[in-house]
C-alpha cells in the first residue's frame, strides 16, 4: 500500500485537521468528527445535515457552506458515522426551522441515521425529516436487495436543496424538493481499478489489467459484471443506456449532466467521457441544460467514472444556479 | 446452573478477544462481498467496550449489556454498529437488574437480542446475514434447555448450531446489506456477520462452561 498517510488508524482524524486548517470558513468538531459552516446555526433556515463514510471527498464535508450543507458527519473510511454524531450535529444546526437529514441508501447509513432521528427527537425536540437517495440503476430495486444505492444524485441534491433552504422554505417544502430531485435523477458507474481502504492495506478486489467493472458503487465493492476494457465511446454507452432506459429524460427543460470521477481518473479523461456522453444524449434527444464534470463523489483512488442525469424544470435550474460557497462547489458567491 | 455477572462479563471480554484475533479474517470475508471493514469496525467497537468495562465494572446484567450496546452504537458505525448495538440493548432489557441469569432467562435474553436484530435489519432466514447463524443458535439453546440440559451444555449445542448456520451461508445469494448488490456473485462466500455472531455464541459457551 502506497498512500500519503501516517498511520492508517489516523487517516480520518488527520484529514479533518487539514480541512480545519485550510478552511477558516468552516468549524470542525474533532471529537465528534463534524464539519460545520462557521456561522451555524442560521436562524430561521432549515438546517441541512448529511454524512457518510469517509473516502468520498469532497462529499460530504467539502459541501458544507452557504448554499449547501450546514454540517457533515464523517465516518471511518467507507463506514457510516454513528448516531451520536448526527444527534450532536442536529442540535447545533437547528435555527428553529427544523433539520433535514440527507442519507445515502446503504444499509449502515440508513440504520444509523434512523437511530439518530429517533434519539434526536427524544433528546432535543428538534423537528427532523429524512430523505434517502437511491439513484444507482446498476442495482435492481427489488425485495431481494437492499435497494438502489445513493450515488451521484446526492451531490446535485445537496446543492439544489441547499438553495431551497436558503430561500427560506419550511422543512416540509425543503424535504419535498429533496424527494423530487432524487426521484428525477439516475446514475451508473464503472471502475478501471479497485481501491485500497487504508485499514485493510490491500485492494478491495482484484481487477486484472484488461478487465473493468460495470455497475460499481462508491465503496470499492465489485459491480454487476466484469467485462474486457473497451474504448471510452463504448464505456459511455454502457453507462448512458441503462440510465436512459430507466427514466425519460427527453423533456423540454433538459437535464443536468454530471460526469463524476471516482478519485483516480484525471480530468482529461473525464472531459473525454463527457464528450462521448453528450454525443449519446444528443442522439437520444436529451437536451443538456447544465453540466458538472469532476471528482465530487469518489471512492478513494479508484479509477473510473459515473454518469448522473437529473431531469430538470425551471425551479431546479434556478436552484442549481443559485450562489454556493463551499470547498467543493463554488459559484456566484 | 446460572450465569453469574462475572461470567457474563467474561463472555463479553472473550467475544472481544475473538474478534480482535480474527479481525483480519472478518475483513477478508467482507472484502469478498462487502466493503472490507467488518473486522476493523467490530474490533474498534469491542476494544472500546473492554475499555469501558475496565474503567467501570457494571453492577447488573442490564447495566452490563446496556453499556456494551451503547458503546457499540457509538463507536462501530456501518450496519454492524446498529445491529450489534440493538442486539445487546435488547439483551439488557430482557435480562433486567439482576446479577445472575439462569438458563431460561439467558435463553430469553438472547432471543430478545435476535428479535432486536430482526427489527433493526429486517432480515429473514436465508438472506445471508448474521440472522442465519444467530437464529438456529437461539433455537438450539431453547431446545437443549427444554430437554433438561444444563446451560453450559445447551450453549455448546447453540454454538454448534451457529457454526452450522454460518457454514450454510456460503452457497446463499445475499438479499440484505451491501452483499446484495452483487446478486448471484455473492454465492460461494461465507457471510462475515454470520461469522462474527458465531464467535459471540461460541464465546458464551466458553465463558459459561
Report on the structure:
- The complex is a heterodimer of chains A (333) and B (209).
- Chain A has 333 residues and is an alpha/beta fold.
- Chain A folds into two domains: 15-184, Rossmann fold (3-Layer(aba) Sandwich); 185-311, Dihydroxyacetone kinase, domain 2 (Hypothetical Protein Tm841, Chain: A,domain 3, 2-Layer Sandwich).
- Chain A contains eight helices and 14 strands.
- Chain A has helices at 11-22, 83-93, 107-124, 153-166, 171-183, 232-246, 267-283, 314-321; strands at residues 26-29, 34-37, 47-54, 71-77, 99-104, 128-133, 185-191, 211-214, 225-228, 255-261, 288-294, 304-311, 324-325, 330-331.
- In chain A, helix 2 (83-93) packs across helix 3.
- The model of chain A has no long low-confidence stretch (mean pLDDT 95).
- By secondary structure, chain B is mainly alpha-helical.
- Chain B has nine helices and two strands.
- Chain B has helices spanning 5-21, 23-33, 38-55, 61-75, 80-95, 103-121, 131-146, 151-167, 192-207, and strands at residues 2-4, 100-102.
- Chain B is globular, with a radius of gyration of 16 Å.
- The termini of chain B are close together.
TL;DR?
Chain A has 333 residues and is α/β, with parallel strands linked by helices.
Tell me what the CATH architecture of chain B is.
Answer: Alpha Horseshoe
| Content of β-strand of chain A | 15-25%
How does the overall form of chain A come out from the CA principal axes?
Answer: globular
What structural class results from the helix and strand content of chain A? alpha/beta
- Helical fraction of chain A: 25-40%
N-to-C series of helices and strands of chain B: EHHHHHEHHHH
Mean pLDDT of chain A: 95
Order of helices and strands of chain A: HEEEEHEHEHHEEEHEHEEHEE
Query: What is the name of the CATH architecture of the largest domain in chain A?
Result: 3-Layer(aba) Sandwich
Q: What is the oligomer described by this structure?
A: heterodimer
What helical percentage do the residues of chain B reach? 55-70%
The CATH topology assignment of the largest domain in chain A is Rossmann fold
- Give the percentage of residues in beta strands of chain B: under 5%
Quantity of strands of chain A, as a count: 14
Largest sheet of chain A: 6 strands, mixed
CATH evolutionary superfamily of chain B = DhaL domain
Organism (chain B): Pseudonocardia benzenivorans
EC number (chain B): 2.7.1.121
Keywords (chain B): Kinase, Transferase
GO molecular function (chain B): phosphoenolpyruvate-glycerone phosphotransferase activity
Amino acid at each position: 500500500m502506497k498512500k500519503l498517510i501516517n498511520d492508517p488508524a489516523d487517516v480520518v482524524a488527520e484529514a479533518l485537521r487539514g480541512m480545519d486548517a485550510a478552511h477558516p470558513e468552516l468549524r470542525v468538531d474533532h471529537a465528534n468528527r463534524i464539519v460545520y459552516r462557521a456561522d451555524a446555526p442560521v436562524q430561521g433556515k432549515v438546517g441541512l445535515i448529511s454524512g457518510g463514510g469517509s473516502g468520498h471527498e469532497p462529499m460530504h464535508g467539502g459541501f458544507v457552506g452557504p448554499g449547501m450543507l450546514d454540517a457533515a458527519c464523517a465516518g471511518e473510511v467507507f463506514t457510516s458515522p454513528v448516531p451520536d454524531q448526527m444527534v450532536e450535529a442536529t442540535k447545533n444546526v437547528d435555527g428553529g426551522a427544523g433539520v433535514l437529514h440527507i442519507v445515502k441508501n446503504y444499509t449502515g447509513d440508513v440504520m444509523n441515521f434512523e437511530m439518530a432521528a429517533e434519539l434526536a427527537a427524544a433528546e432535543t425536540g428538534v423537528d427532523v425529516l429524512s430523505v434517502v437517495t437511491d439513484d444507482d440503476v446498476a442495482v435492481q430495486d427489488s425485495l431481494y436487495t437492499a435497494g438502489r444505492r445513493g450515488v451521484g444524485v446526492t451531490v446535485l441534491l445537496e446543492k439544489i436543496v441547499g438553495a431551497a433552504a436558503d430561500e427560506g422554505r419550511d422543512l416540509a417544502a425543503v424535504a419535498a424538493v429533496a424527494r423530487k430531485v432524487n426521484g428525477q435523477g439516475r446514475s451508473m458507474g464503472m471502475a478501471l481499478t479497485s481501491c485500497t481502504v487504508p485499514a485493510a492495506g490491500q485492494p478491495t478486489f482484484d481487477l486484472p489489467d484488461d478487465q473493468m467493472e460495470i455497475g460499481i458503487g462508491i465503496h470499492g465493492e465489485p459491480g454487476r459484471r466484469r467485462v474486457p476494457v473497451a474504448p471510452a465511446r463504448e464505456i459511455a454507452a454502457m453507462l448512458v443506456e441503462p440510465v436512459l432506459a430507466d427514466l425519460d429524460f427527453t423533456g423540454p427543460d433538459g437535464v443536468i449532466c454530471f460526469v463524476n470521477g471516482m478519485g483516480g481518473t484525471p480530468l482529461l479523461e473525464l472531459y473525454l467521457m463527457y464528450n462521448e456522453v453528450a454525443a449519446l444524449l444528443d442522439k437520444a434527444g436529451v437536451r443538456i441544460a447544465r453540466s458538472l464534470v469532476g471528482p465530487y463523489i469518489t471512492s478513494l483512488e479508484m479509477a473510473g467514472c459515473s454518469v448522473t442525469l437529473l431531469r430538470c424544470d425551471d425551479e431546479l435550474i434556478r436552484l442549481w444556479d443559485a450562489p454556493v460557497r463551499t470547498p467543493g462547489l463554488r459559484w456566484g458567491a | 446452573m446460572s450465569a453469574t455477572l462475572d461470567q457474563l462479563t467474561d463472555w463479553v471480554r472473550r467475544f472481544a478477544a475473538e474478534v480482535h484475533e480474527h479481525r483480519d479474517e472478518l475483513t477478508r470475508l467482507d472484502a469478498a462481498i462487502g466493503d472490507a471493514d467488518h473486522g476493523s469496525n467490530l474490533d474498534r467497537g469491542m476494544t472500546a467496550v473492554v475499555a469501558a468495562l475496565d474503567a467501570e465494572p457494571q453492577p447488573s446484567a442490564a447495566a452490563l449489556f446496556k453499556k456494551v450496546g451503547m458503546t457499540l452504537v457509538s463507536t462501530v458505525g456501518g450496519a454492524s454498529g446498529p445491529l450489534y448495538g440493538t442486539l445487546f440493548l435488547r439483551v439488557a432489557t430482557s435480562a433486567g437488574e439482576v446479577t445472575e441469569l439462569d438458563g431460561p432467562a439467558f435463553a430469553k435474553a438472547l432471543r430478545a437480542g435476535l428479535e432486536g436484530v430482526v427489527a433493526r435489519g429486517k432480515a429473514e432466514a436465508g438472506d445471508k446475514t448474521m440472522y442465519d447463524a444467530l437464529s438456529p443458535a437461539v433455537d438450539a439453546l431453547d431446545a437443549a434447555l427444554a430437554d433438561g440440559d444444563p446451560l453450559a451444555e445447551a450453549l455448546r449445542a447453540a454454538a454448534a448450531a451457529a457454526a452450522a448456520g454460518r457454514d450454510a451461508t456460503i452457497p446463499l445469494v445475499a438479499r440484505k446489506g451491501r452483499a446484495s448488490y452483487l446478486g448471484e456473485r455473492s454465492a460461494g462466500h461465507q457471510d462475515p456477520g454470520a461469522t462474527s455472531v458465531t464467535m459471540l455464541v461460541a464465546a458464551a459457551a466458553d465463558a459459561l462452561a
